[in-house]
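note to self: dont lose this again. the chain is below, predicted strucutre after it. 323 aa total, dont forget to put it in the shared folder this time
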Amino acid sequence: MKTGRLALRTGAVGALLALTTASLLVGGYDITIGNLFSDPAAREMFFISRVPRTLALILAGVAMSVSGLIMQMITQNRFVEPTTTGTAQWAGLGILVTLIIAPNTPPLTKMVVASVFAMTGSLVFLWVLRRVALKSSLIVPLIGIMLGAVVSAVTVYLAASFNLLQSMSAWRSGGFSGIVRGHYEPLWVVGAITVAVFFLADRLTVAGLGRDVARSVGINYERVIFVATLLVAVATGVTSVVVGFLPFLGLVVPNIVSLVRGDNVRGNLPWVAALGAALILLCDLIGRTVVAPMEIPVSVVLGAIGAAVFIALVLRQRRHAAF
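---
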């Protein structure tokens, strides 16, 4: 058993390292391990563009995967994540509001506003959820998708009214082609969020069992839910400003990990983070190579994969319910 676990961990680390290396070397500008030492231009391009892009991919993958894990625990539903609960759409509305009111707002202010809007959207979603009779677990993401659609419609209307549709499409595309040194650094806040989730892991696991169970063991259920929602809002807000929307990532990764390892947050957290980073690296490599030298945005590839996995999860649940 221990040998099998060690082999699995070694394979996972090896796969992540291989994808990271490929991300650093693949691109329109010819960079190889050899010319990194002999060509100053290649070395400069490597550190200005390739390294920041790869780090942004990893950090964004970790952010959205961990956010999905948190949301699934606090809602007790496997079909939710920031883009299926309206959280990401609210963050987008916050970004648009800053573009309308203060177009020259620095990125840090945009992240704060986007996080506040994302927090508001998450609380609205949870408020609606508590007042709806849930006869099926599929009702939960449907409510979130409907709320997100309403917010997206308002966002598009405002963007069209203020001639900002082009700006809106840029940060909704979920692409990494514009990531360079000096642009991705705010994503490091995700590391702090992941550490916070690790320390909250036991409380999140108990809170995922419901309010009554949490209170019976002395845990302040409302406080844990609020802190967890705040962490998701910050991660979503920062990621939305830096790279845009990354659909289904927070849904796919936690479900795959929980199918293999169960629902222990502390034990699953490293696996969720690693698989999230690996999946987004893989999607980015597909987008960069399929139509090279052009690129397909990561959100397009990720959306196609995520939609297929989402359907598979729904069908799997229906089969289990039938038995």
